[in-house]
């Protein structure tokens, strides 16, 4: 009986020690797990802090502003010319045009007419000027559909001229571009006039150059009513003599 009691006592003590040891192991494992989690959290926090303070992380998130990336804002004149360039300089803008210099000048007359027809110039009028006039070889008069179309015609003629010309050929000046009614260009051997519909009727250059000033009603029209009265009585005035002419 005594031996059995001692055996039971030893067994109870062994069980108690085993339970305490297992409890300590579980507690130790939990503590290690919590420490690992704390270390991971601290590491993530430090990593996030480095991301916030590192300039390289900012470069990845935000695009650096550069002058060349900013849009260009044109003034009124540049914007208008830019729009005209867009209308005239298309991908195949020169297709079908002769870009070689002409024989009589930068433009031969037939090449200029082809260009004007392609750009839908209206009522193309061509007149050969006599050599004794010593002006140009040809006078070309066209009409534009609108002010914008008139300017586009002149600018495109100028662009093609620059493609065709030699270094010795001067670049023509576009005159009257801001008038809105009459644009003139001296192409060397050709004088080009681009009119609005109303201005073309008003000035009637076709009649002035084709029939002459003596048959052109506009050129013969008196500029002043007083001058008109004097012209009507010019014959009578020529016949008058001073009162003391017989003395």
From TrEMBL:
It comes from the Eukaryota. One of its GO terms (biological process) is negative regulation of translation. It holds the Pfam family RsfS. GO terms for cellular component: mitochondrion. It is found in: Mitochondrion. One of its GO terms (molecular function) is ribosomal large subunit binding. The keyword Mitochondrion applies. PANTHER family: IOJAP SUPERFAMILY ORTHOLOG, MITOCHONDRIAL ASSEMBLY OF RIBOSOMAL LARGE SUBUNIT PROTEIN 1. HAMAP family: Iojap_RsfS (MF_01477). Required for normal mitochondrial ribosome function and mitochondrial translation. May play a role in ribosome biogenesis by preventing premature association of the 28S and 39S ribosomal subunits. Interacts with mitochondrial ribosomal protein uL14m (MRPL14), probably blocking formation of intersubunit bridge B8, preventing association of the 28S and 39S ribosomal subunits. Addition to isolated mitochondrial ribosomal subunits partially inhibits translation, probably by interfering with the association of the 28S and 39S ribosomal subunits and the formation of functional ribosomes. This is Mitochondrial assembly of ribosomal large subunit protein 1. It comes from Gryllus longicercus.
